[in-house]
Specification:
alpha/beta, nine-stranded mixed β-sheet, four-stranded antiparallel β-sheet, 44% helix, 14% strand, globular
Length: 624
Protein backbone atom coordinates (compact mmCIF):
# COMPACT_ATOMS: atom_id res chain seq x y z
CA UNK A 1 0.00 0.00 0.00
CA UNK A 2 2.80 2.43 0.92
CA UNK A 3 4.56 1.81 -2.39
CA UNK A 4 1.34 2.36 -4.34
CA UNK A 5 0.55 5.64 -2.56
CA UNK A 6 4.11 6.90 -2.83
CA UNK A 7 4.31 6.23 -6.56
CA UNK A 8 1.02 8.06 -7.20
CA UNK A 9 1.77 10.97 -4.85
CA UNK A 10 5.47 11.36 -5.69
CA UNK A 11 5.06 13.91 -8.53
CA UNK A 12 2.84 16.04 -6.28
CA UNK A 13 5.28 15.82 -3.40
CA UNK A 14 8.41 16.67 -5.37
CA UNK A 15 6.74 19.73 -6.88
CA UNK A 16 5.50 20.77 -3.46
CA UNK A 17 8.98 20.58 -1.92
CA UNK A 18 10.47 22.62 -4.77
CA UNK A 19 7.79 25.26 -4.19
CA UNK A 20 8.66 25.45 -0.48
CA UNK A 21 12.34 25.89 -1.29
CA UNK A 22 11.48 28.68 -3.73
CA UNK A 23 9.25 30.31 -1.13
CA UNK A 24 11.84 30.34 1.65
CA UNK A 25 14.52 31.57 -0.76
CA UNK A 26 12.23 34.41 -1.78
CA UNK A 27 11.75 35.44 1.84
CA UNK A 28 15.49 35.36 2.46
CA UNK A 29 16.05 37.44 -0.66
CA UNK A 30 13.54 40.07 0.52
CA UNK A 31 15.04 40.44 4.01
CA UNK A 32 18.47 38.83 3.70
CA UNK A 33 20.04 41.09 6.36
CA UNK A 34 17.61 39.95 9.04
CA UNK A 35 18.25 36.20 8.93
CA UNK A 36 20.64 34.23 11.11
CA UNK A 37 22.81 32.13 8.79
CA UNK A 38 24.56 30.03 11.43
CA UNK A 39 24.33 26.28 10.65
CA UNK A 40 22.21 25.53 13.73
CA UNK A 41 19.73 28.33 13.02
CA UNK A 42 19.33 27.29 9.39
CA UNK A 43 18.91 23.66 10.44
CA UNK A 44 16.16 24.58 12.91
CA UNK A 45 14.41 26.73 10.31
CA UNK A 46 14.52 24.01 7.66
CA UNK A 47 13.46 21.38 10.18
CA UNK A 48 10.36 23.38 11.10
CA UNK A 49 9.63 23.99 7.41
CA UNK A 50 10.02 20.29 6.59
CA UNK A 51 7.67 19.23 9.40
CA UNK A 52 4.93 21.74 8.57
CA UNK A 53 5.32 21.07 4.84
CA UNK A 54 4.80 17.32 5.23
CA UNK A 55 1.72 17.88 7.39
CA UNK A 56 0.28 20.46 4.99
CA UNK A 57 0.95 18.17 2.02
CA UNK A 58 -0.85 15.26 3.68
CA UNK A 59 -3.91 17.41 4.27
CA UNK A 60 -3.88 18.74 0.71
CA UNK A 61 -3.82 15.24 -0.74
CA UNK A 62 -6.90 13.96 1.12
CA UNK A 63 -9.25 14.37 -1.91
CA UNK A 64 -6.84 12.54 -4.23
CA UNK A 65 -6.23 9.90 -1.56
CA UNK A 66 -9.97 9.22 -1.32
CA UNK A 67 -10.09 8.79 -5.09
CA UNK A 68 -7.22 6.30 -4.99
CA UNK A 69 -8.85 4.50 -2.09
CA UNK A 70 -11.94 3.57 -4.06
CA UNK A 71 -10.44 3.26 -7.55
CA UNK A 72 -11.17 -0.27 -8.84
CA UNK A 73 -8.13 -2.24 -10.00
CA UNK A 74 -9.54 -2.63 -13.48
CA UNK A 75 -9.97 1.18 -13.77
CA UNK A 76 -6.30 1.89 -13.05
CA UNK A 77 -5.02 4.39 -15.66
CA UNK A 78 -8.33 4.30 -17.44
CA UNK A 79 -9.96 7.43 -18.85
CA UNK A 80 -11.56 8.40 -15.53
CA UNK A 81 -8.32 7.89 -13.62
CA UNK A 82 -6.35 10.03 -16.08
CA UNK A 83 -8.89 12.86 -16.16
CA UNK A 84 -9.17 13.05 -12.36
CA UNK A 85 -5.40 12.75 -11.85
CA UNK A 86 -4.60 15.45 -14.41
CA UNK A 87 -7.27 17.75 -13.01
CA UNK A 88 -6.00 17.18 -9.46
CA UNK A 89 -2.41 17.84 -10.55
CA UNK A 90 -3.40 21.05 -12.33
CA UNK A 91 -5.34 22.40 -9.34
CA UNK A 92 -2.56 21.35 -6.96
CA UNK A 93 0.22 23.02 -8.96
CA UNK A 94 -1.71 26.20 -9.71
CA UNK A 95 -2.94 26.61 -6.12
CA UNK A 96 0.50 26.06 -4.63
CA UNK A 97 2.21 28.41 -7.07
CA UNK A 98 -0.44 30.98 -6.24
CA UNK A 99 0.32 30.34 -2.56
CA UNK A 100 4.03 30.92 -3.10
CA UNK A 101 3.34 34.28 -4.77
CA UNK A 102 0.83 35.23 -2.05
CA UNK A 103 3.37 34.38 0.64
CA UNK A 104 5.94 36.66 -0.96
CA UNK A 105 3.45 39.53 -1.14
CA UNK A 106 2.40 38.98 2.47
CA UNK A 107 6.04 38.78 3.56
CA UNK A 108 6.78 42.03 1.73
CA UNK A 109 4.06 43.76 3.74
CA UNK A 110 4.35 42.10 7.16
CA UNK A 111 7.66 40.13 7.21
CA UNK A 112 5.68 37.23 8.59
CA UNK A 113 4.24 33.87 7.67
CA UNK A 114 0.49 33.81 7.16
CA UNK A 115 -1.21 34.66 10.46
CA UNK A 116 -4.59 35.93 11.62
CA UNK A 117 -4.07 39.09 9.59
CA UNK A 118 -4.25 36.89 6.49
CA UNK A 119 -7.37 35.23 7.88
CA UNK A 120 -8.99 38.63 8.43
CA UNK A 121 -8.07 39.71 4.92
CA UNK A 122 -9.88 36.70 3.49
CA UNK A 123 -13.03 38.04 5.16
CA UNK A 124 -12.73 41.60 3.77
CA UNK A 125 -12.16 40.67 0.15
CA UNK A 126 -13.38 43.89 -1.48
CA UNK A 127 -10.79 46.25 0.04
CA UNK A 128 -8.02 43.67 0.04
CA UNK A 129 -8.47 42.55 -3.56
CA UNK A 130 -8.70 46.15 -4.79
CA UNK A 131 -5.60 47.04 -2.79
CA UNK A 132 -3.66 44.11 -4.26
CA UNK A 133 -4.76 44.97 -7.80
CA UNK A 134 -3.65 48.57 -7.29
CA UNK A 135 -0.31 47.52 -5.80
CA UNK A 136 0.77 44.57 -7.98
CA UNK A 137 0.42 43.42 -11.63
CA UNK A 138 -2.10 40.77 -10.61
CA UNK A 139 -3.30 39.73 -14.07
CA UNK A 140 0.26 39.21 -15.27
CA UNK A 141 1.05 37.21 -12.15
CA UNK A 142 -1.99 34.97 -12.65
CA UNK A 143 -1.11 34.48 -16.30
CA UNK A 144 2.49 33.65 -15.38
CA UNK A 145 1.31 31.09 -12.81
CA UNK A 146 -0.88 29.49 -15.49
CA UNK A 147 2.01 29.25 -17.96
CA UNK A 148 4.32 27.68 -15.36
CA UNK A 149 1.56 25.26 -14.29
CA UNK A 150 1.03 24.06 -17.87
CA UNK A 151 4.78 23.64 -18.34
CA UNK A 152 5.05 21.55 -15.18
CA UNK A 153 2.10 19.42 -16.26
CA UNK A 154 3.69 18.74 -19.63
CA UNK A 155 6.97 17.73 -18.00
CA UNK A 156 5.37 15.70 -15.21
CA UNK A 157 2.72 13.85 -17.22
CA UNK A 158 4.79 10.68 -17.62
CA UNK A 159 5.41 10.48 -13.88
CA UNK A 160 1.74 10.65 -12.94
CA UNK A 161 0.94 7.12 -14.10
CA UNK A 162 3.69 4.77 -12.88
CA UNK A 163 3.55 1.01 -13.45
CA UNK A 164 2.35 -0.15 -10.05
CA UNK A 165 -0.17 -2.72 -8.85
CA UNK A 166 -3.28 -1.53 -7.05
CA UNK A 167 -3.57 -3.13 -3.57
CA UNK A 168 -6.78 -4.82 -2.53
CA UNK A 169 -9.44 -2.75 -0.80
CA UNK A 170 -8.61 -4.18 2.66
CA UNK A 171 -4.99 -3.05 2.47
CA UNK A 172 -6.05 0.30 1.13
CA UNK A 173 -8.45 0.83 4.04
CA UNK A 174 -5.75 -0.13 6.53
CA UNK A 175 -3.38 2.37 4.91
CA UNK A 176 -6.05 5.06 5.05
CA UNK A 177 -6.57 4.47 8.77
CA UNK A 178 -2.85 4.94 9.41
CA UNK A 179 -2.87 8.11 7.25
CA UNK A 180 -5.78 9.55 9.24
CA UNK A 181 -4.16 8.69 12.58
CA UNK A 182 -1.01 10.52 11.54
CA UNK A 183 -3.04 13.60 10.63
CA UNK A 184 -4.99 13.48 13.90
CA UNK A 185 -1.72 13.22 15.82
CA UNK A 186 -0.29 16.15 13.88
CA UNK A 187 -3.40 18.25 14.54
CA UNK A 188 -3.16 17.77 18.30
CA UNK A 189 0.61 17.50 18.67
CA UNK A 190 2.09 20.07 16.31
CA UNK A 191 1.23 23.60 17.43
CA UNK A 192 2.50 26.63 15.58
CA UNK A 193 3.61 28.33 18.78
CA UNK A 194 5.93 25.40 19.56
CA UNK A 195 7.67 25.51 16.21
CA UNK A 196 9.70 28.64 16.92
CA UNK A 197 12.82 26.72 17.79
CA UNK A 198 15.35 29.48 17.24
CA UNK A 199 15.75 33.01 18.63
CA UNK A 200 15.75 34.85 15.31
CA UNK A 201 12.32 36.15 14.33
CA UNK A 202 12.84 35.90 10.57
CA UNK A 203 14.14 32.33 10.75
CA UNK A 204 11.15 31.30 12.85
CA UNK A 205 8.63 32.87 10.49
CA UNK A 206 10.29 31.47 7.34
CA UNK A 207 10.17 28.03 8.92
CA UNK A 208 6.35 28.01 8.87
CA UNK A 209 4.80 26.51 5.75
CA UNK A 210 2.18 28.88 4.34
CA UNK A 211 -0.91 26.68 4.22
CA UNK A 212 -0.16 25.14 7.62
CA UNK A 213 0.34 28.62 9.08
CA UNK A 214 -2.87 29.97 7.50
CA UNK A 215 -5.11 27.21 8.84
CA UNK A 216 -3.41 27.35 12.23
CA UNK A 217 -4.25 31.06 12.40
CA UNK A 218 -7.83 30.36 11.28
CA UNK A 219 -8.33 27.84 14.09
CA UNK A 220 -6.58 29.93 16.76
CA UNK A 221 -7.67 33.47 15.97
CA UNK A 222 -8.62 34.15 19.58
CA UNK A 223 -6.62 32.73 22.48
CA UNK A 224 -7.76 32.38 26.07
CA UNK A 225 -4.99 33.90 28.15
CA UNK A 226 -5.49 31.82 31.28
CA UNK A 227 -5.38 28.56 29.33
CA UNK A 228 -2.19 29.19 27.38
CA UNK A 229 -0.13 31.84 29.18
CA UNK A 230 1.69 32.13 32.53
CA UNK A 231 -0.65 32.87 35.44
CA UNK A 232 -0.33 33.58 39.14
CA UNK A 233 -2.52 34.07 42.20
CA UNK A 234 -5.17 36.77 41.74
CA UNK A 235 -4.46 38.26 45.16
CA UNK A 236 -0.85 38.80 44.10
CA UNK A 237 -2.04 40.40 40.86
CA UNK A 238 -4.29 42.82 42.74
CA UNK A 239 -1.52 43.73 45.16
CA UNK A 240 0.77 44.60 42.23
CA UNK A 241 -1.84 46.47 40.23
CA UNK A 242 -3.32 48.50 43.09
CA UNK A 243 0.15 49.59 44.11
CA UNK A 244 0.67 50.94 40.59
CA UNK A 245 -2.76 52.50 40.04
CA UNK A 246 -3.12 54.05 43.50
CA UNK A 247 -1.95 57.49 44.47
CA UNK A 248 -3.09 61.02 45.08
CA UNK A 249 -6.63 61.81 43.85
CA UNK A 250 -7.34 58.11 43.24
CA UNK A 251 -10.00 56.15 45.16
CA UNK A 252 -10.46 52.44 44.52
CA UNK A 253 -14.05 51.21 44.28
CA UNK A 254 -15.56 47.89 45.27
CA UNK A 255 -14.92 45.01 44.81
CA UNK A 256 -11.32 44.58 45.93
CA UNK A 257 -10.71 42.17 43.03
CA UNK A 258 -11.04 45.04 40.56
CA UNK A 259 -8.83 47.93 39.47
CA UNK A 260 -11.92 50.15 39.07
CA UNK A 261 -11.20 53.51 40.62
CA UNK A 262 -12.44 57.09 40.83
CA UNK A 263 -9.96 59.63 39.48
CA UNK A 264 -10.51 63.17 40.72
CA UNK A 265 -8.82 66.35 39.58
CA UNK A 266 -8.04 69.20 41.99
CA UNK A 267 -8.48 71.63 39.10
CA UNK A 268 -11.59 72.76 37.25
CA UNK A 269 -12.66 70.61 34.32
CA UNK A 270 -12.00 71.99 30.87
CA UNK A 271 -14.54 70.60 28.44
CA UNK A 272 -12.46 71.45 25.41
CA UNK A 273 -13.16 69.87 22.05
CA UNK A 274 -10.94 66.92 21.16
CA UNK A 275 -9.89 65.65 17.73
CA UNK A 276 -7.87 62.43 17.79
CA UNK A 277 -6.13 61.48 14.56
CA UNK A 278 -4.85 57.92 14.37
CA UNK A 279 -2.19 58.29 11.71
CA UNK A 280 -1.93 55.17 9.55
CA UNK A 281 1.50 53.47 9.82
CA UNK A 282 3.37 56.64 10.75
CA UNK A 283 6.54 55.33 12.40
CA UNK A 284 8.53 57.74 14.57
CA UNK A 285 11.50 57.33 12.23
CA UNK A 286 9.71 59.33 9.51
CA UNK A 287 9.91 62.52 11.58
CA UNK A 288 13.67 62.60 10.93
CA UNK A 289 13.71 61.19 7.40
CA UNK A 290 14.31 62.73 3.99
CA UNK A 291 13.78 61.37 0.47
CA UNK A 292 15.48 62.52 -2.74
CA UNK A 293 13.13 64.15 -5.23
CA UNK A 294 13.40 63.57 -9.01
CA UNK A 295 15.40 66.80 -9.11
CA UNK A 296 17.90 65.40 -6.62
CA UNK A 297 16.86 67.59 -3.68
CA UNK A 298 16.44 66.06 -0.22
CA UNK A 299 12.79 66.39 0.77
CA UNK A 300 11.80 66.31 4.44
CA UNK A 301 8.93 63.85 4.79
CA UNK A 302 7.15 65.43 7.77
CA UNK A 303 7.78 69.20 7.90
CA UNK A 304 4.30 69.90 9.27
CA UNK A 305 4.43 67.28 12.02
CA UNK A 306 7.92 68.45 12.96
CA UNK A 307 6.63 72.00 13.32
CA UNK A 308 3.61 70.80 15.31
CA UNK A 309 5.87 68.80 17.61
CA UNK A 310 7.82 71.92 18.53
CA UNK A 311 4.61 73.78 19.36
CA UNK A 312 2.99 70.90 21.27
CA UNK A 313 3.24 68.43 24.09
CA UNK A 314 5.39 65.97 22.15
CA UNK A 315 6.03 62.43 23.34
CA UNK A 316 8.95 61.29 21.20
CA UNK A 317 9.11 57.70 22.47
CA UNK A 318 5.63 56.20 22.44
CA UNK A 319 5.33 52.48 21.76
CA UNK A 320 2.37 51.01 19.86
CA UNK A 321 0.75 47.97 21.40
CA UNK A 322 0.50 46.06 18.13
CA UNK A 323 0.91 45.97 14.38
CA UNK A 324 -2.60 46.70 13.12
CA UNK A 325 -5.02 49.62 13.11
CA UNK A 326 -7.50 47.82 15.37
CA UNK A 327 -4.77 47.56 18.00
CA UNK A 328 -4.24 51.31 17.81
CA UNK A 329 -8.00 51.90 18.09
CA UNK A 330 -8.16 49.55 21.07
CA UNK A 331 -5.25 51.29 22.83
CA UNK A 332 -6.61 54.82 22.25
CA UNK A 333 -10.23 54.09 23.16
CA UNK A 334 -9.99 51.38 25.85
CA UNK A 335 -6.48 51.90 27.23
CA UNK A 336 -5.94 48.16 27.51
CA UNK A 337 -2.80 46.03 26.97
CA UNK A 338 -2.74 43.98 23.74
CA UNK A 339 -4.33 40.66 24.66
CA UNK A 340 -3.25 37.61 22.60
CA UNK A 341 -5.27 36.91 19.47
CA UNK A 342 -7.80 39.34 18.08
CA UNK A 343 -8.19 42.94 19.15
CA UNK A 344 -11.20 43.68 21.35
CA UNK A 345 -12.49 45.82 18.46
CA UNK A 346 -13.16 42.57 16.59
CA UNK A 347 -14.34 40.36 19.45
CA UNK A 348 -17.88 39.48 20.43
CA UNK A 349 -19.66 41.24 23.31
CA UNK A 350 -17.63 44.44 22.97
CA UNK A 351 -20.62 46.75 23.43
CA UNK A 352 -21.06 49.47 26.09
CA UNK A 353 -17.53 49.27 27.45
CA UNK A 354 -16.01 51.82 29.79
CA UNK A 355 -14.17 53.72 27.11
CA UNK A 356 -13.28 57.14 25.79
CA UNK A 357 -16.75 57.14 24.25
CA UNK A 358 -18.62 56.53 27.51
CA UNK A 359 -16.60 59.11 29.46
CA UNK A 360 -17.06 61.91 26.92
CA UNK A 361 -20.71 61.01 26.31
CA UNK A 362 -21.42 61.30 30.05
CA UNK A 363 -20.00 64.82 29.91
CA UNK A 364 -22.30 65.85 27.06
CA UNK A 365 -19.90 65.55 24.13
CA UNK A 366 -20.94 64.94 20.55
CA UNK A 367 -18.84 61.83 19.77
CA UNK A 368 -18.09 60.97 16.14
CA UNK A 369 -16.05 58.25 14.46
CA UNK A 370 -14.96 59.65 11.08
CA UNK A 371 -13.40 57.38 8.48
CA UNK A 372 -12.76 57.85 4.77
CA UNK A 373 -13.27 54.14 4.07
CA UNK A 374 -16.10 51.76 4.79
CA UNK A 375 -15.93 51.00 8.48
CA UNK A 376 -17.43 47.51 8.35
CA UNK A 377 -13.82 46.51 7.70
CA UNK A 378 -12.33 45.09 10.91
CA UNK A 379 -15.67 45.61 12.68
CA UNK A 380 -14.77 49.26 13.30
CA UNK A 381 -18.24 50.73 12.71
CA UNK A 382 -19.91 48.20 15.01
CA UNK A 383 -17.39 48.85 17.78
CA UNK A 384 -17.75 52.63 17.66
CA UNK A 385 -21.52 52.61 17.17
CA UNK A 386 -21.96 50.43 20.25
CA UNK A 387 -19.57 52.47 22.36
CA UNK A 388 -21.21 55.91 22.26
CA UNK A 389 -20.07 57.19 18.87
CA UNK A 390 -21.97 58.36 15.83
CA UNK A 391 -20.52 56.60 12.77
CA UNK A 392 -19.51 58.93 9.93
CA UNK A 393 -17.70 56.59 7.56
CA UNK A 394 -17.58 57.03 3.79
CA UNK A 395 -21.01 55.44 3.42
CA UNK A 396 -22.47 58.45 5.28
CA UNK A 397 -20.64 61.13 3.28
CA UNK A 398 -22.45 63.36 0.80
CA UNK A 399 -21.91 63.05 -2.92
CA UNK A 400 -18.94 65.12 -4.01
CA UNK A 401 -17.09 64.96 -0.67
CA UNK A 402 -14.71 62.35 -2.08
CA UNK A 403 -12.30 63.95 -4.57
CA UNK A 404 -9.73 61.14 -4.61
CA UNK A 405 -9.92 57.54 -3.40
CA UNK A 406 -8.09 54.24 -3.69
CA UNK A 407 -8.90 50.73 -2.53
CA UNK A 408 -9.01 51.73 1.13
CA UNK A 409 -11.05 54.90 0.83
CA UNK A 410 -10.93 58.67 0.49
CA UNK A 411 -7.61 60.49 0.68
CA UNK A 412 -6.59 62.17 3.92
CA UNK A 413 -7.37 65.65 2.57
CA UNK A 414 -10.99 64.65 1.98
CA UNK A 415 -11.18 63.10 5.46
CA UNK A 416 -9.90 66.22 7.22
CA UNK A 417 -12.31 68.41 5.28
CA UNK A 418 -15.10 66.13 6.50
CA UNK A 419 -13.78 66.39 10.08
CA UNK A 420 -13.98 70.19 9.92
CA UNK A 421 -17.54 70.05 8.53
CA UNK A 422 -18.64 67.77 11.36
CA UNK A 423 -16.90 69.98 13.94
CA UNK A 424 -18.74 73.00 12.53
CA UNK A 425 -22.05 71.14 12.96
CA UNK A 426 -21.37 70.27 16.60
CA UNK A 427 -20.19 73.81 17.36
CA UNK A 428 -23.31 75.27 15.73
CA UNK A 429 -25.43 73.07 18.00
CA UNK A 430 -23.55 74.33 21.05
CA UNK A 431 -22.02 70.95 21.88
CA UNK A 432 -18.42 70.15 22.75
CA UNK A 433 -17.20 67.44 20.38
CA UNK A 434 -14.92 64.43 20.34
CA UNK A 435 -13.88 63.21 16.89
CA UNK A 436 -11.78 60.09 16.35
CA UNK A 437 -10.28 59.68 12.87
CA UNK A 438 -8.22 56.98 11.19
CA UNK A 439 -6.22 58.26 8.23
CA UNK A 440 -5.80 56.14 5.09
CA UNK A 441 -3.34 57.54 2.56
CA UNK A 442 -0.18 56.13 4.16
CA UNK A 443 -1.23 52.59 3.23
CA UNK A 444 -0.50 50.48 0.24
CA UNK A 445 -1.05 51.20 -2.71
CA UNK A 446 0.33 54.63 -1.56
CA UNK A 447 -1.69 56.67 -4.05
CA UNK A 448 -2.83 60.21 -3.32
CA UNK A 449 -3.74 63.51 -5.04
CA UNK A 450 -0.90 65.27 -6.82
CA UNK A 451 -1.13 68.55 -4.87
CA UNK A 452 2.14 69.63 -6.60
CA UNK A 453 4.20 67.64 -4.10
CA UNK A 454 7.85 66.88 -4.97
CA UNK A 455 7.23 63.12 -4.52
CA UNK A 456 4.61 61.86 -6.94
CA UNK A 457 1.82 59.41 -6.16
CA UNK A 458 2.70 55.77 -6.65
CA UNK A 459 6.32 56.41 -7.68
CA UNK A 460 7.84 56.91 -4.25
CA UNK A 461 5.51 54.44 -2.53
CA UNK A 462 5.56 54.62 1.28
CA UNK A 463 7.73 57.72 1.61
CA UNK A 464 5.65 59.62 -0.91
CA UNK A 465 2.53 58.65 1.04
CA UNK A 466 4.12 59.85 4.28
CA UNK A 467 4.87 63.20 2.63
CA UNK A 468 1.26 63.52 1.46
CA UNK A 469 -0.14 62.44 4.85
CA UNK A 470 1.97 65.15 6.50
CA UNK A 471 0.90 67.71 3.86
CA UNK A 472 -2.78 66.91 4.52
CA UNK A 473 -2.24 67.41 8.26
CA UNK A 474 -0.67 70.80 7.59
CA UNK A 475 -3.65 71.84 5.44
CA UNK A 476 -6.01 70.54 8.12
CA UNK A 477 -4.45 72.62 10.88
CA UNK A 478 -4.37 75.77 8.73
CA UNK A 479 -8.08 75.38 7.94
CA UNK A 480 -8.92 74.62 11.57
CA UNK A 481 -7.19 77.84 12.68
CA UNK A 482 -9.86 79.82 10.84
CA UNK A 483 -12.66 78.26 12.91
CA UNK A 484 -14.20 79.76 16.08
CA UNK A 485 -13.75 76.44 17.90
CA UNK A 486 -10.00 76.17 17.25
CA UNK A 487 -8.72 77.90 20.39
CA UNK A 488 -10.71 75.50 22.59
CA UNK A 489 -9.71 72.30 20.82
CA UNK A 490 -7.06 69.70 21.62
CA UNK A 491 -5.62 67.95 18.56
CA UNK A 492 -4.06 64.56 19.24
CA UNK A 493 -1.89 63.07 16.50
CA UNK A 494 -0.70 59.54 17.25
CA UNK A 495 0.17 56.64 14.96
CA UNK A 496 -1.94 53.49 15.05
CA UNK A 497 1.19 51.36 14.51
CA UNK A 498 4.45 51.53 12.61
CA UNK A 499 5.19 50.86 8.95
CA UNK A 500 6.91 47.56 9.83
CA UNK A 501 7.38 45.80 13.17
CA UNK A 502 9.52 42.82 12.19
CA UNK A 503 13.09 42.38 13.37
CA UNK A 504 15.56 39.75 14.46
CA UNK A 505 14.19 39.77 18.00
CA UNK A 506 11.07 37.89 19.10
CA UNK A 507 9.38 41.29 19.46
CA UNK A 508 11.22 44.12 17.75
CA UNK A 509 10.77 47.11 20.04
CA UNK A 510 12.08 49.58 17.47
CA UNK A 511 9.28 48.34 15.20
CA UNK A 512 6.71 49.69 17.68
CA UNK A 513 8.19 53.20 18.09
CA UNK A 514 5.63 55.88 17.20
CA UNK A 515 5.14 59.61 17.93
CA UNK A 516 2.34 61.28 19.87
CA UNK A 517 1.62 65.02 19.56
CA UNK A 518 -0.97 66.88 21.66
CA UNK A 519 -1.49 70.31 20.11
CA UNK A 520 -3.57 73.12 21.59
CA UNK A 521 -1.74 76.49 21.51
CA UNK A 522 -4.17 78.13 23.97
CA UNK A 523 -4.42 75.17 26.33
CA UNK A 524 -1.19 73.12 26.37
CA UNK A 525 2.30 74.43 27.00
CA UNK A 526 4.84 73.08 24.46
CA UNK A 527 7.11 70.44 25.93
CA UNK A 528 9.13 67.51 24.60
CA UNK A 529 9.14 64.33 26.68
CA UNK A 530 11.64 61.62 25.70
CA UNK A 531 10.68 59.16 28.42
CA UNK A 532 9.23 55.92 26.95
CA UNK A 533 5.47 55.62 27.39
CA UNK A 534 2.82 53.22 26.13
CA UNK A 535 0.19 53.93 23.51
CA UNK A 536 -2.38 53.04 26.18
CA UNK A 537 -1.18 56.03 28.26
CA UNK A 538 -2.32 58.59 25.67
CA UNK A 539 -5.99 58.49 26.76
CA UNK A 540 -5.38 58.88 30.54
CA UNK A 541 -2.87 61.64 29.78
CA UNK A 542 -5.46 63.49 27.67
CA UNK A 543 -8.08 63.14 30.41
CA UNK A 544 -5.55 64.48 32.90
CA UNK A 545 -4.88 67.53 30.73
CA UNK A 546 -8.65 68.20 30.60
CA UNK A 547 -8.85 67.77 34.41
CA UNK A 548 -11.68 65.27 34.06
CA UNK A 549 -13.18 63.48 37.03
CA UNK A 550 -14.12 59.98 35.94
CA UNK A 551 -14.38 56.32 36.87
CA UNK A 552 -11.58 54.30 35.31
CA UNK A 553 -10.83 50.69 34.52
CA UNK A 554 -8.06 51.79 32.19
CA UNK A 555 -4.70 50.07 32.26
CA UNK A 556 -2.82 53.12 31.04
CA UNK A 557 -1.77 56.02 33.26
CA UNK A 558 -1.32 59.77 33.02
CA UNK A 559 2.23 60.17 31.72
CA UNK A 560 2.35 63.72 33.15
CA UNK A 561 1.63 62.60 36.71
CA UNK A 562 4.49 62.92 39.18
CA UNK A 563 4.24 59.25 40.17
CA UNK A 564 4.10 57.94 36.58
CA UNK A 565 6.24 54.83 36.08
CA UNK A 566 7.67 54.37 32.59
CA UNK A 567 6.80 51.00 31.05
CA UNK A 568 5.03 49.87 27.92
CA UNK A 569 3.22 46.96 26.31
CA UNK A 570 3.88 45.39 22.91
CA UNK A 571 2.63 42.36 21.02
CA UNK A 572 3.44 40.24 18.01
CA UNK A 573 0.44 38.03 17.23
CA UNK A 574 0.60 35.33 19.95
CA UNK A 575 3.46 36.89 21.93
CA UNK A 576 2.91 39.79 24.33
CA UNK A 577 5.61 41.85 25.97
CA UNK A 578 6.05 44.09 29.00
CA UNK A 579 9.00 46.46 28.80
CA UNK A 580 10.50 48.34 31.71
CA UNK A 581 13.94 49.89 32.25
CA UNK A 582 15.30 48.37 29.04
CA UNK A 583 14.23 44.78 29.74
CA UNK A 584 11.41 43.03 27.92
CA UNK A 585 9.63 40.02 29.40
CA UNK A 586 7.82 38.14 26.63
CA UNK A 587 4.86 35.92 27.51
CA UNK A 588 4.10 33.10 25.06
CA UNK A 589 1.58 30.26 24.61
CA UNK A 590 2.07 26.98 26.49
CA UNK A 591 2.87 29.14 29.56
CA UNK A 592 6.34 30.09 28.40
CA UNK A 593 8.26 33.33 28.85
CA UNK A 594 11.64 34.81 27.97
CA UNK A 595 13.66 37.99 28.49
CA UNK A 596 15.33 40.34 26.03
CA UNK A 597 17.28 43.56 26.33
CA UNK A 598 19.26 44.64 29.37
CA UNK A 599 20.40 41.84 31.67
CA UNK A 600 19.01 42.01 35.21
CA UNK A 601 19.30 39.89 38.33
CA UNK A 602 17.13 36.79 38.85
CA UNK A 603 15.17 38.63 41.54
CA UNK A 604 14.54 41.56 39.21
CA UNK A 605 13.52 39.13 36.45
CA UNK A 606 10.99 37.49 38.75
CA UNK A 607 9.57 40.86 39.78
CA UNK A 608 9.27 41.97 36.14
CA UNK A 609 7.60 38.71 35.14
CA UNK A 610 5.08 39.01 37.99
CA UNK A 611 4.19 42.53 36.90
CA UNK A 612 3.73 41.42 33.32
CA UNK A 613 1.51 38.51 34.32
CA UNK A 614 -0.56 40.74 36.60
CA UNK A 615 -1.33 43.17 33.78
CA UNK A 616 -2.11 40.64 31.08
CA UNK A 617 -3.92 38.05 33.22
CA UNK A 618 -6.27 40.60 34.78
CA UNK A 619 -6.75 42.56 31.54
CA UNK A 620 -8.35 39.39 30.17
CA UNK A 621 -11.40 40.40 32.25
CA UNK A 622 -12.18 43.25 29.86
CA UNK A 623 -15.88 42.56 29.45
CA UNK A 624 -18.28 44.61 31.63
Amino acid sequence: MAKYLWQRLKPFFYCFIVFQIISVCGKIFQTYQGFDYSPLSLLLMLGSLALTSVIAFMYMMIPFLLFLMFLPQKRLYGKGDKIFTLLSFFVFIYANLFGVVAEQIFWDEFQSAFNFIAVDYLVYTTEVVENIYQSYPVNWLLFGILVVTLAIMKFGYKYLFPAVEVPRIGRRLAGAVIYVLVLVGAYHGVDMSRLEWGKNYYNNEAGKQGTFSLFSAFLKNEIDYKTFYPVQDKAKNMEILRSKFGGKNVTFLEPEESIERKISSPKKENRANVIIVLMESLSAKYLDMTEPSPEGEQVKLTPNLNKLAKDSLYFSHVYATGTRSVRGIEALTLSVPPLPGMSIVRRDNNENLLSIGSIFADKGYDNKWIYGGFGYFDNMNYFFKNNHFQVVDRGKWDKGEVTFANAWGACDGDTYRKVIKEADKSYAEGKPFLSVILSISNHRPYTYPDENLPLKSGKHKRRGAVLYADYAIGQFIEEAKTKPWFDNTVFVFVADHTAGAAGKEEINLAGHHIPAILYAPKLIKPQRIDMPISQIDVLPTLLGILNFDYVSRFWGQNALAKDYESRYFVSNYQKVGYVKDGTDVILKPVRQFSYEGKEISPAAQEKLKSEAIAFYQEAENWKP
